[in-house]
Amino acid sequence: GEPAMIAIVVRCGQQPERVELPDDQDAAFKRVQELVGGYVERVVLGPYDIFCDEDGIAKGLPMMRLGLRGTYVVLAHCLEELAGLDDGLAGRAMLGLLLAPDLLAREAAQ
């Protein structure tokens, strides 16, 4: 089959982690739901789609970078479906998340 999709998972108090999602859209979406732990909300940030728990505030999840709550998953921006990160995007996202989360937001604003 297709190669797996590359995503980045950011959990509270941990370093961002590069993970592989199944290439099948339904399976990938289920995995994203499992990772964030609830119904998925998508936030578009420039070249990235960021998926987080839409009930994060109600659940009292910890405030994370970018004003998100709880665990979130970073993928490439794509309107029709989930899209994995290429190495360049993955590298930039990891760097931004590790060094300066606001860089991601600034890059998106350009």
What's this entry about, in short?
The protein is of the alpha+beta class and 110 residues long.
Strand content: 25-35%
The counted number of beta strands is 5
Give the uncertain stretches in residue-range form. Answer: none
Terminal CA distance reads 36 Å
Structural class: alpha+beta
Strand order in the largest sheet: 2-1-5-4-3
> Secondary-structure element sequence?
EEHEEEHH
- Helical proportion, percent range: 25-40%
Shape assignment = globular
* SS field, number of helical segments: 3
Q: Supply Rg.
A: 13 Å
Oligomerization: single chain
Q: Indicate the mean pLDDT.
A: 87
Largest sheet: 5 strands, antiparallel
Q: Which SSEs are present, and which pair or pack?
A:
Elements: E1 5-10, E2 17-21, H1 25-36, E3 40-45, E4 48-53, E5 72-76, H2 87-99, H3 101-109
Antiparallel strand pairs: 1-2, 1-5, 3-4, 4-5
